[in-house]
Amino acid sequence: MADLGVVFPAGPDGRRSTAALGRAVVADALRPVDPTGAAAAERETNWRAGYLTHVRRLVEAGLASREAALAIADAGLVALHRRMRVAGPDGVEAGLDDLLRAPAGRALATAEVTGTAEPERELSVPYHGERLRGETLLRRLDAWVAAGVVEPSCAEAVRTVAAHPEWLALPGTTVVVLGAGAEMGPLTALLRWGARVAGVDLPRPALWQRVAETARRGAGTLLVPVAPDDGSDPARAGADLITEVPAVADWVAALPGRAVLGNYVYADGATNVRVSTAVDALTVRLAAARDDLALGFLATPTDVFAVPADAVEQSVRAYAGRSRTAKLLGRPLRTLSAGRLLQRAYVPGSDPGIADSLVAQQGPNYALAKRLQRWRATVARAGGTTVSMNVAPPTRTRSVVKNRALAAAYAGAHRFGVEVFEPATSNVLMAALLVHDLHTGGGPAHQQPWQDEACAAAHGGLWRGAYAPRSALGLAALLGYGAARG
Question: What pLDDT is recorded for position 475?
Fold first, then answer.
């Protein structure tokens, strides 16, 4: 079963190497604008440890011009679609583009769950045991901006939604939540606001019982895919995106209202690339079937981004304003670590700066899966599609806290000016940004793709703190280890 559906290509020895695929796709993406960078990626012998440099180069090479950024995104998508394969139950493999035309293996019917509550008519954000609304919410947004936890454009977008509570229910729209059970998805918030949500996730009864109960407690309508002979039982819902792109595509294409395809899928390791690639094939197929399709993504904060000059300036001020103790300890730590610890985040005056928050422990498959989503967002936006892609804050999700090193780093992050959010806060905040983007044509228009990515980012302070995040991560983990164990 592991080799059915969307799979990595097999090499001459029959092995499906994730490293070989990642190396080749990054090199192909760089080649149109940075042949030297492409060659360096191809020569990387230890992709698992060395990918960080090459993923950063994808951002740096795209800063030359809008055309360069679009060329990298387009070449990366082409490379992935050309290389990934689709394996059938008969052992025959085909190219990924076969999914754009392949007939569905089964038809999917729709089960519906209707909420029993009244829709919330005011934006409220759960935070530290209370719900922020009205002036309290606005003051918290101001405090986050002052502390460098969110971009000013993020706070402004949330303020706009708070001022237009009639937007929350997204009338006339169906938001397809791929990864209906995901901790970081908007499903719960949207259903509380009275929206129509179509949920897609694996056929796991316990997951769907939980999701259906969430819908019943909400105020919206949940639509889920079921086999026709399963009737209207939402607990028997589900589809496997890795093996059932055509069936899911046909089901989504027939949904009522304006369609928003929200990508909130996550899996461990190589499966993350497989499911993200399957979602991208689904996206291309649906875009051809529905000219009203809008796209939604969450970008991870632990990635590389170009950031505006005012973020650089705030970071430089924070570095200059370090406490006397921090300055005294910083010098020997940098010396002992050969400069790896407590580096300043930016060269003063950089415009844009490069915020490199990649975390080596998350691995190259995670980086590639998230990069694929950013590439699709960039290309789709340039083609006129409404796209909502916002950087989410560092969040204590199950997938993070089960990694001991990451859990410890998050527990100690506040000592370096980084605020780590609880899932309930992140969910509502990011759902509000999705609502904002869908009512404003994707948010403000920018000249450069990096500016689109930086707009409305809720990075938790990773972009505006005194230190380069990776240079403080080890110390944060050391300081947070006891708290994480507790």
Answer: 80
What does the pLDDT read at residue 203?
94
Domain boundary among 96, 128, 159: 96
Q: Is 398 helix (H, G, I), strand (E, B) or coil?
A: helix
In this structure, the answer to whether residues 92 and 121 fall within a common structural domain is no
- Alpha-carbon gap, residue 27 to 152, rounded angstroms: 35
Q: Mark whether 140 and 59 lie in a shared domain.
A: no
pLDDT for the residue numbered 340:
73
89 and 120, same domain (yes or no): no
Residue 217 is part of a domain; what is its CATH number? 3.40.50.720
Residue 428 in domain: yes
User: Do 3 and 142 belong to one domain?
Assistant: no
Over its C-alpha atoms, the chain yields an Rg (Å, rounded) of: 22
Domain residues for the domain of 88 are: 1-96
- DSSP of 447-461, one letter per residue? SSHHHHHHTT---TT
Number of domains in the chain: 2
Is 420 a residue whose pLDDT tops 90? yes
Q: Cβ–Cβ contacts within 10 Å for residue 114, how many?
A: 11
371 and 442, same domain (yes or no):
yes
With left for phi above 0 and alpha for psi between -120 and 50, is residue 172 left, alpha or beta? left
Query: Among candidates 392, 307, 401, which has minimal Cα distance to 345?
Result: 307
Answer with the one of 29, 64, 96 that is the final residue of a domain: 96
Q: Which residues fall within 8 angstroms of residue 219, CB to CB, at 6 or more apart? A: 115, 116, 117, 118, 119, 120, 191, 192, 193, 194
Average pLDDT of the chain, as a whole number: 93
Residues 88 and 121 in one domain: no
Lowest mean pLDDT among 1-5, 47-51, 197-201: 1-5
* Cβ–Cβ < 8 Å for 238, 201: yes
Q: Show Cβ contacts of residue 41 under 8 Å, excluding neighbours closer than 6 positions.
A: 23, 26, 27, 30, 54, 57
Q: Is residue 102 part of a domain?
A: no
Check whether 167 has a pLDDT greater than 50. yes
Residue 211 in this model has a pLDDT that exceeds 50: yes
Q: Convert the pLDDT of each residue in 66-106 to its tens digit.
A: 999 999 999 999 999 999 999 999 889 999 999 999 999 99
Instruction: Compute the Cα dihedral for 436, 281, 271, 250 and give only its sign.
Output: positive
442: left (phi over 0), alpha (psi -120 to 50) or beta: left
Do the domain assignments include residue 315?
no
Percent of the chain with pLDDT over 90: 82
Query: What are the tens digits of pLDDT across the range 242-283?
Result: 999 999 999 999 999 999 999 999 999 999 999 999 999 999
